[in-house]
Write a structure and sequence with these properties.
With 663 residues, this protein is mainly α. Among the domains are: 172 residues, Winged helix-like DNA-binding domain superfamily/Winged helix DNA-binding domain (Arc Repressor Mutant, subunit A, Orthogonal Bundle), CATH 1.10.10.10; 103 residues, Tetratricopeptide repeat domain (Serine Threonine Protein Phosphatase 5, Tetratricopeptide repeat, Alpha Horseshoe), CATH 1.25.40.10; 147 residues. A three-stranded antiparallel sheet has the order 3-5-4. Strands 1-2 form a two-stranded antiparallel sheet. The longest helix is centred in the N-terminal third of the chain and has 27 residues.
């Protein structure tokens, strides 16, 4: 379980599922913050005492040790007793937090700003936009008065200001001067001594045809510097003023590299919208959800930002007390979803709760379409759980959509229905039928994103049914639509499918290379629910797949230290067996829960069955055999479109043989 830390705002930590880690009292948080400031270096206990108290208590050292022990329990709750900590470690005279570079938001932010300095303008903007989203408030917000945090807070604050200016430069380089003006205007108002910010604002104004405003900005900067600081503007500002007065050609607007017509239309439309639609108008929430829906399919920072702002939009609608508005805000976010594990369980639960409240507030007389969209949302956002509400909501949404004959609504409802077809194994044919209906429906009514979804569902289902020529056709169709409609996330799934194809035909070395390349595409794709633990599981499938013997052997660098993500309970017994720890493997197997109801259902039951055979665990063998029987004609795991452990029938035969041996 990888813990991540946040210091760009109040100090916080989150577990691998995205849930907040309870950090207890302010002293505990201070210890954690002080160790993060040290950036993996050891902080002596004596220094921690000095930093935590002006007048240390008599047993301050013991108190620090108590704080550290509590933090260790919170950060590594599954660590066995009396085993060394891996994250908050004791070393020499003190403690160090051995967090990875990407595990602390401040460290990621610094790296993003460094990367942006050398990236092309468009990539730099995307990188910085994602990085700005990590800020939740002032850095180390609770510790503004602490001397030990002062230098780091100042450094991060300066870095953020530099990033704002770098983003503005990139916009100017792309010919997007109008986009740069609002942020720069606010920036100089808050930080009036930054001469480069004044320079960029004046240049942006000049390039949007506002020469008079540009000169006024430069004169305002001069007046502030002279009157408040007693200094004249630097050479860059003086040179820009002279160039503007002389209308120097090198100041002319840069031709837009992102499509002149599109840029002009966007700038004019958004300006007109801001000018004519009141900031308090409820229409702004409706418009916001439309933007978020489009943002979500861009992947990466766009997908993460869409998830975050979607919850904020719902909360804003609920605050207004308008159930119909809230229903529109929730239901309009009909972004097609193919993966059955939610990326952010906490936010998904918030959306489900809001949808349920809104359904209750609307009452039985609400417009059927509004009810159906709320129900489809519940079905989608409760995927992978064992709640009976998800399947019920999916069936109700489908019934309403068919009754009122609304194609877009039916596509949304079918997506929810797909997500609720994992209550048992062996349902690939049922999902294939849903995919086929989605493709036909979307083709007739021009629903491009749902047409892609239909092809991806069929890719998964045909893979499970070992129809790889059919799956190839759906992969090609999805890629073609993705290119035509600028849907970059589709390539993530089709590249993983290409690796699965190699694995299914026994070409393990080539498949391993393809899996590692496919995993690289997940980095920054904004889909943690898909990303975590997927590569190790895919590599494990090569050792347990079509050509594997019944002996348990795991290679490819996989062991207990591997981040197995949500698949750790099913990988652990096999890892322990590889290490010769049969007793520990048997114990882990007895604690094994039923797999989640998702695309990995068959694969995880097969892993459990292999481990059960190896340790002669009859109860688990019988459970696995019972659960897998209905999938006897499918390839284990191939329904994910990502990996396979070979024919389920082979696993059933192995289980049946082992059970007969025990009689």
């Amino acid at each position: 379980m990888q813990v991540t830390f946040g210091v760009l705002g109040p100090v916080a930590a989150w577990d691998g599922a995205g849930d907040a880690v309870a950090l207890k009292g302010p002293r505990h948080r201070a210890v954690l913050a002080r160790l993060i400031v040290a950036r993996r270096r050891v902080v002596p206990v004596a220094r921690l005492v000095d930093d935590l108290w002006v007048d240390p208590p008599q047993d301050a050292v013991g108190a620090v040790r108590t704080f550290v022990a509590a933090l260790r329990r919170a950060l590594e709750p599954e660590r066995p007793p009396r085993t060394p900590a891996r994250l908050l470690v004791t070393e020499g005279p003190g403690y160090a937090l051995r967090a990875e570079q990407g595990a602390v938001d401040a460290w990621r932010f610094e790296q993003a700003v460094t990367d942006a300095a050398t990236l092309p303008p468009r990539e730099a903007i995307d990188r910085l936009e994602e990085a700005f989203g990590w800020w939740r408030g002032p850095a180390y917000a609770e510790f503004t008065e602490e001397a030990w945090a002062g230098a780091e807070r100042s450094r991060l604050g300066e870095l953020r200001l530099h990033a704002v200016e770098r983003r503005a430069e990139a916009r100017l380089d792309l010919g997007r001067a109008a986009d740069a003006v609002p942020d720069l205007d606010a920036h100089v108002a808050e930080h009036p001594w930054r001469e480069d910010a004044w320079r960029l604002l004046a240049l942006a104004l000049y390039r949007t045809g506002r020469q008079g405003d540009a000169l006024a900005v430069l004169r305002r900067a001069r007046a502030l510097l002279v009157e408040q600081l007693g200094v004249d503007p630097g050479p860059a500002l003086r040179r820009l003023e002279a160039d503007i007065l002389g209308q120097a050609r090198h100041l002319d607007p840069v031709p837009s590299r992102t499509g002149d017509a599109a840029e002009r239309v966007w700038a004019r439309a958004t300006t007109a919208y801001d000018r004519t639609v009141a900031s308090s108008a409820r229409a702004r929430l409706d418009s916001t959800v439309g933007l978020l829906r489009n943002l979500a399919v861009t992947g990466g920072g766009g997908l993460e930002a869409a998830r975050e702002h979607r919850v904020a939009a719902i909360e804003a609608a609920e605050e207004l007390g308008d159930a119909e508005l809230t229903a529109r805000v929730i239901g309009a976010y009909d972004v097609p979803a193919i993966w059955t594990r939610v990326d952010d369980p906490r936010r998904a639960a918030q959306v489900v709760a809001a949808a349920e409240r809104t359904l209750a507030a609307l009452g039985p007389d609400a417009h059927p379409a509004a009810r159906a969209r709320l129900l489809a949302t519940i079905a989608l956002e409760s995927r992978g759980t064992r709640s009976a509400r998800g399947p019920q909501a999916a069936r109700q949404a489908e019934e309403i959509a068919r009754r009122i004959d609304d194609p877009g609504l039916l596509a949304f409802a079918l997506n929810g229905l797909f997500m609720q077809t994992f209550h048992r194994t062996g349902l690939a044919a049922q999902r294939d039928a849903i995919g086929a209906e989605l493709v036909a429906l979307s083709t007739r009514h021009g629903l491009a994103t749902y047409e892609v979804l239909g092809h991806l569902i069929r890719l998964q289902a045909r893979s499970a049914l070992a129809d790889f020529p059919g799956a190839d056709g759906h992969a090609a169709a999805a890629d073609l639509l993705a290119e035509r409609h600028e849907l970059p996330l589709v390539g993530v799934f089709t590249h993983w499918y290409a690796a699965l194809r190699l694995a299914a035909t026994g070409r393990a070395p080539a498949a391993e290379t393809a899996y590692r390349k496919a995993a690289a595409r997940l980095d920054g794709a904004g889909m943690p629910g898909l990303e975590r633990g997927l590569l190790p599981l895919a590599l494990l499938s090569l050792d347990c797949g079509p050509q594997a013997s019944t002996d348990v052997r795991i290679g490819r660098g996989l062991d207990e230290s591997t981040d197995w993500g949500p698949y750790e309970p099913w990988a652990r017994p096999l890892v322990l067996l590889t290490q010769g720890r049969r007793g520990d493997a048997a114990k882990a197997l007895r604690l094994l829960p039923d797999p989640p109801r998702d695309l990995m259902l068959e694969a995880l039951w097969c892993l459990a069955g292999r481990a059960a055979i190896a340790v002669d665990d009859r109860e688990t063998m019988e459970r696995a055999h019972t659960e897998l029987t209905s999938a006897s004609r499918e390839l284990a795991g191939a329904g994910s479109g990502l990996l396979t452990l070979g024919p389920v029938a082979r696993h059933l035969d192995d289980l049946a043989t082992a059970l007969r041996r025990r009689r």
